[in-house]
């Protein structure tokens, strides 16, 4: 044991599909990192909540489950979703059932082209694309408000109501300005659709303009979400920090992940910026049943996720070294199939672990 070293307690929820494979890989690399650095300890506890549990018990999270999660410093999440459970049930049953009560209102998605990997954009190389997308994670289009009447009739009517509250929009936009301020370029793009949606979206623009006054160093611009998709493809260098609603940022961040090379690389953090509850970290990819159990899942998304988690826990140096190791391994051509290589999950994991030991 390392005396005097800080211990971070991590809850692991591997869940479905390739989730357990990538979380195993992530835990292995994190253990290597902790041993190599000697400056912090990690304590892992596994929670086997999944679509299997749901099919057996009718619940994803057992009674008292959330309470037991609360004692951890962070949550490392795999992926949820199974072919025989409707997506809206699995999503609300596990991920959102944690995000919402834990007030993880800021969903943060860094995107860049890692050294040794390629973007589908012909002219983009590492450095040309370096973004953080901040997604509203507590309300908006995914507030779950609405209903259906006259079900099955030709005149069936359904509503899916977007909820925007000044409180939630303002805290998110403030967080986005803080993020922009902490990055070298100090540039924030506020995305809305305020030409067509004249209530909530106009309120977003107004709140952004008023919060901007508290951040004089940050340059801020407004974009409509449709124009934003073109801008991301045609002028990726012109963007840095991006803030958008739950729905818009959901879509933009999938585009971002694809532009950066593969959905298997990208991380996401569900943060409670007040730090009253543990925050949750996960690769953006889903359960990917088509490749489950084959040993070919790309663990890089989980490694980058682990680095984001360590940064949130105050271990900046370890986070940087972990990303250095990941990029070195990519440069050395140890890549999974989604990145055009031949390596399996295990090979990439061992290569990253070896690289971490070499760096320290
Ligand atoms: P969900 O419904 O939860 O989004 P999904 O099964 O649709 O899950 P995604 O994660 O969205 O799967 O990914 C789409 C496809 O991308 C997968 O079917 C898989 O082929 C590929 N993919 C996703 N993640 C990875 C990964 N980590 N490594 C390699 N390929 C991946
Ligand atoms: Mg999917």
Model description:
With 360 residues, this protein is of the alpha/beta class. Helix content is 40%, strand content 22%. Residues 18, 79, 81, 87, 263-264, 285-291, 297-298, 301, 336, 338 line the site of adenosine-5'-triphosphate (ATP).
- What spatial form do the alpha-carbon principal axes imply? globular
With helices defined by DSSP (H or I, 4 residues minimum), what is the helix count?
Answer: 11
**Taking Cα atoms only, what radius of gyration do you get, to the nearest Å?**
20 Å
Percent of residues in helical segments? Answer: 25-40%
End-to-end separation in angstroms reads 18 Å
Topology:
Layout: E1 6-15, H1 19-37, E2 40-46, H2 51-57, H3 65-70, E3 74-79, H4 87-99, E4 106-112, E5 130-136, E6 140-149, E7 157-163, H5 166-182, E8 187-192, H6 200-212, E9 219-224, H7 225-234, E10 241-244, H8 246-259, E11 267-271, E12 279-283, H9 300-312, H10 316-331, H11 345-359
Parallel strand pairs: 1-2, 1-3, 3-12, 5-10, 8-9, 8-10
Antiparallel strand pairs: 4-5, 4-11, 6-7, 11-12
Helix pairs in contact: 1-9, 1-11, 5-6, 7-8, 9-10, 10-11
Bound molecules: adenosine-5'-triphosphate and magnesium ion (MG).
What is the structure about, briefly put?
The chain has 360 residues and is α/β, with parallel strands linked by helices. The protein has helices at residues 19-37, 51-57, 65-70, 87-99, 166-182, 200-212, 225-234, 246-259, 300-312, 316-331, 345-359; strands spanning 6-15, 40-46, 74-79, 106-112, 130-136, 140-149, 157-163, 187-192, 219-224, 241-244, 267-271, 279-283. The model has no long low-confidence stretch (mean pLDDT 95).
